[in-house]
Amino acid sequence: MKTFNRSLAAIALVLLSLVLITGCNRLDTPTSSQPTTEDGMGLWNPGADDHVVPGDQIPMYRPGFLEREWGMAVNPLNIPNATAHIGPEGGIIRLGRHSLTIPAGAVDADITFKISGASLTAIASDCAPSGLVFAIPATLTLSYAGTQYEDAANPDLSIFYALPDGTYEEYPSTVDPVNKTVSAPLNHFSRYILSGMML
To answer: Residue 60 carries which DSSP code?
Structure first.
């Protein structure tokens, strides 16, 4: 009888594990990108020779720029982030020179949104909650100030979605050379990265 009870308990544990795994990995919704580095923090910290797409040039922060922007907050243990409770009326979250705009009607309930830095060397941000799909696209705006593109008259930059398999999907993006920003409409949240070519 004891062996039978242990077998039932083992079967129940396996079934519960399968239910949890299936519930946490819905294939019909986007998921967070997997960390692209092995630093344990999940940060995307490319070097000068790394590329998002062949022939691109990743905007890299000039030495000391992040420290001037964020002070001691810039370190792998305390990446800056911003959160806000936004409902059907919409709203904006600002993280330094970056912003996330949730338009009115994009969501039908109050939700805690978060935008956080995802790199110490380049321009990347994680947007949460992961998997949330909008009725009306949100707009992510990333600043390229402090990079080699800062003084370019007409930088060819785009926002890319970092897919879990390590590839990147380009989003239609608008460059504002006056304010040194790039904006793109998002229909879901995950990790987004700025990349492009110097013209």
So the answer is: B
Looking at residue 21, the DSSP 8-state letter turns out to be H
pLDDT for 98 equals 92
Is the previous residue joined to 129 through a cis bond, with omega within 30 degrees of 0? yes
Q: How many CA atoms lie within 13 A of 109 on its CB side?
A: 4
What is d(CA 181, CA 179) in angstroms, rounded to the nearest whole number? 6
The percent helix, strand, coil of the chain (3-state, each to 5) is: 15, 35, 50
- Low-confidence stretches of the chain (pLDDT < 70) are 1-41, 70-79, 197-199
pLDDT of residue 70: 65
176 vs 7, 51, 116, 142, 143, CA distance in Å?
64, 23, 22, 10, 9
- Residues near 178 by beta carbon (within 8 Å), at least 6 away in sequence: none
